[in-house]
Amino acid sequence: MKILKVEKVSFAYDREPVLKEVSLEVGEREFVAIIGPNGGGKSTLLKLIMGQFEPQSGQITVLGKSPKEAREEIGYVPQNTNVNLEFPIRVLDVVMMGNPKQHREAAGWWERLFPVRYNDIEKRCAYSTLEKVGMEAYMHRRIGDLSGGQRQRVMIARALCAHPRLLILDEPTSSIDVEGQQQIFSLLKELSKDLSILVVSHDLSVITDYADKVVYLNRTAYTHDLRNAPIHLKPPEGDHFCEVELMQMLSQKSCDCEQHGGKEKDS
Ligand SMILES: Nc1ncnc2c1ncn2[C@@H]1O[C@H](COP(=O)(O)OP(=O)(O)OP(=O)(O)O)[C@@H](O)[C@H]1O
């Protein structure tokens, strides 16, 4: 079964269409990246996938259900995570906040509304997700004392706490240096052995090294499968693609990599 199916989805906030007949799929344990120019509709598409808006035509299903019905199957790491760096909250507490399911199941009505302490199941779950992202040694540290990359790992652990089948991240590496970007994407690649990942990213040259599929979105969408391409979107030894070249290649229905020694590929 496909984890996410977007079928011929069109959407407009007002008269101007933002998405026009957009289709894409995320399979089980696939790592899919959405790229595209500013204003191309990436955040809007994520909002539709999470059930915040309804498409005007077309259909979105997550595990065969509507986005609203499937909400608990989706983990979300928002863009520019707003953490008050002065607030004295520990890493472990930040991660445990991502586990609303346990509160509902294990606590009384008062604690459901105002959770003041966490039970052992939640603590163990938070510890294991911190282990998954390589941050368990920092669990008692203040969130404000971590680097941008470390903080992003903690936010990923927080989203994993709800045991999602689909993890969605909106520009997880903005304002992180290239080494930090590579670490985050290689972590996502590792996580995609157990769950499906959909990530919006502007870090083109890095994401093409890690993603299984890249969807170029600019009102309409083109999907490029990087696994089955006759030539990967990687330059020959000693050469390199700049971001503009990559964006141009991906913005076409077929990736014509011939000028770099490759063959044309139909997506
Ligand atoms: N709430 C809204 N009301 C009206 N128009 C909106 C709204 N949100 C976004 N838009 C418009 O929809 C279009 C797509 O915006 P969106 O934020 O989805 O693009 P994006 O690809 O995520 O851009 P960026 O890369 O800059 O984050 C833009 O023209 C934007 O101005």
TrEMBL record:
GO-annotated molecular function: ATP binding; ATP hydrolysis activity
SMART domains hit by this protein: AAA
UniProt KW keywords: ATP-binding, Nucleotide-binding, Transport
Pfam families the record matches: ABC_tran (PF00005)
Source organism superkingdom: Bacteria
InterPro entries: AAA+_ATPase, ABC_transporter-like_ATP-bd, ABC_transporter-like_CS, Metal_Ion_Import_ABC, P-loop_NTPase
Domain ABC transporter residues, every copy: 4-244
SUPFAM superfamilies, per the entry: P-loop containing nucleoside triphosphate hydrolases
Signal sequence, renumbered to the chain: none
Record-stated family: Belongs to the ABC transporter superfamily.
Protein name: ABC transporter related protein
The species this protein was found in: Nitratifractor salsuginis (strain DSM 16511 / JCM 12458 / E9I37-1)
Lineage: Bacteria, Pseudomonadati, Campylobacterota, Epsilonproteobacteria, Campylobacterales
